[in-house]
Model the fold of this input.
Amino acid sequence: MLKLNDIYKTFNQNTVNEKRVINGLSLHLRKGDFVTVIGGNGAGKSTMLNLIAGVYPPDSGNILLDGEPITHLPEYKRAKYLGRVFQDPMMGTAANMEIQENLALAYRRGKNRGLRWGITNKEKQIYTEKLKSLDLGLETRMSTKVGLLSGGQRQALTLLMAALQQPKLLLLDEHTAALDPKTADRVLELTQQIVTANNLTTLMVTHNMKQAILYGNRLIMMYEGNIIYDVSGEEKSSLKVADLLQKFESVSKGSFANDRMILS
Done:
């Protein structure tokens, strides 16, 4: 479903602030893969997602989605193939619009839009059923402004919106990092539920190693813009946090410097 072939990305080239962030990265995902991505700050995790989404063009290498080259496709043209949830719950929704209006925007992603009536009764029924699956009571509040929801409710809604059109690839960029532990666990449960129900190919970046081990069928660890560890199946399910720390230390030839990851 996704192929990254020998990708390089350097920011601020030919300046004193030059920084190579992605360094010969290659990654292939099969349809239905749920891959968790871990690594220290500056490892290139979010940059990799931005390259896939078209936020930045790669300096070299190519990207294929479902067999089609998208390396030079602009971000807005990729939007109909991708779903994305950011770390900040405020980024995925329009605060001044109603819940049902936000869902309508997501429902129309990649489609032609005309001057017909905004939300049909049939669509309202679809949104109601989708919201019921979240088990947050939002199906009775469809006319509520999204800005009145809690961070966890907004992130759950964003997740639902990202998956509404069953994208070819779902990108989750530390989408529970800004939530309290209890809410984060609930959003992760919803993530697993939505990904499994729709068989979505998913890349989930996380700083939490326990989450990386618990969720998904495959785990990759990044360091200095490349993949240093790729594990799946029974080997992944038997991993412990200590195993990941040891693996990182052996490659980086030093201790794990990222306090956020150690504490999580």
Observations:
- The longest strand covers residues 19-29.
